[in-house]
Amino acid sequence: MSSLALMFRPKNLDEICGQKAVKAAFLKFIATSKIPHSIFYGPAGCGKTSFARAVASGANYDFYEFDGGNLKIDDFRKILKNYENALNKPLFFIDEIHRLSKTQQEALLIPMENYKALVIGASTENPFFTLSSGIRSRSMLFEFRPLSSGDFEELLGKIREQISFSIDEEAKEYLFKSSGGDARAMLNLLEFAVTLDENVSLENLKTLRQNALKEGAKEDDTHYELASAFIKSLRGSDENAVIYYLARLIDSGESADFIARRMAIFASEDIGNANPNALNLAASTLSIVKDIGFPEARIILAQCAIYLASSPKSNSSYNAINAALRYVQSEEILKIPPYLKNHTKESKDYLYPHDFGGWVEQKYLEIPLVFYKSKGIGFEKTLNEWLEKIRSKG
């Protein structure tokens, strides 16, 4: 029997199971011949590649697939040259687009800007953390969700129309749950089970699926929900919950890079200057796990996670920059005091703090503003004491 995953790959958008909102949007895009560059992000096996192929088919684009880890920009240029006088356009599908280097991402901007090709990227990671602002601003972002039990029922129904086999409710439920919302995993497991016996049994499924979800696992235990539980446990300083969710992430096949990046963001956003060393450790972790990979990376990730969970927490820096950005984007722009500018005649009026023992009273803003509100937690308290000490001299 040919691979079920290939046999039942959707040929058009109408054959797509799940992703109803995304499908509805693209049906309208195709109908109006206005298809945006897009980034599809979500866990593996939820249909990102198949969806892109269906878009190309529905819109009469020639489909070209690339791996973000091995992409050569020259390949783009060669293909585009062949389409200079063509009536149709190519669709460049870049799997694992988050693996593109900064230089490669910048090189993509030109074909995206002039629409010489339609670009669709796919990623298992959040594009807000992994893609440049230039790529994001030229694309629409679509989140792909793991398939629901209803989506699986629909897919299973299509399979049974063409392949003869039986499966009882208990085996069917196990098939869905053990696939964790991954259609490809479900199809592969089903294919082997049907090969063993046309009467698909729970016993055979369990024999084939040694890495099935543990007893009591829930259908909504998705990639992003596990990551959310991990971060919230870090924020709540529950080191045992943190290690549990870290183990779940690792066991589910999550990349060490993704976990380390989330911890680096957390170290600054939720710990900040309450313990500045947290960011140093998180940055080191991110660098090291890229080089060593699993299984050893689990140890470095665990060390960092326990340290972050055990550290004092403060989101003062996070709140400060958000407040400042809101002000800059909504209020009148303030003038820079002349003595703070470079090479002006008023520059001589600038008071150089080192000439006054490290600090001197001086006006740095046109009007007084307060964005940073320290919580006085951990090392923030030491910083507060220092600021109070020097300002008391004024």
TrEMBL record:
Function: DNA-dependent ATPase that plays important roles in cellular responses to stalled DNA replication processes.
A GO biological-process term: DNA synthesis involved in DNA repair
SMART domains: AAA
CDD domains, per database record: AAA, HLD_clamp_RarA
Family (UniProt): Belongs to the AAA ATPase family. RarA/MGS1/WRNIP1 subfamily.
Source taxon at top rank: Bacteria
This protein's record includes keyword Isomerase: no
Keyword tags: ATP-binding, Nucleotide-binding
UniProt keyword Metal-binding, yes or no: no
InterPro entries for the chain: AAA+_ATPase, AAA_assoc_2, AAA_ATPase_RarA/MGS1/WRNIP1, ATPase_AAA_core, DNA_pol3_clamp-load_cplx_C, MgsA_C, P-loop_NTPase
Name of the protein this chain belongs to: Replication-associated recombination protein A
One GO MF term: single-stranded DNA helicase activity
Domain AAA+ ATPase, first and last residues per copy: 34-147
Pfam families recorded: AAA, AAA_assoc_2, MgsA_C
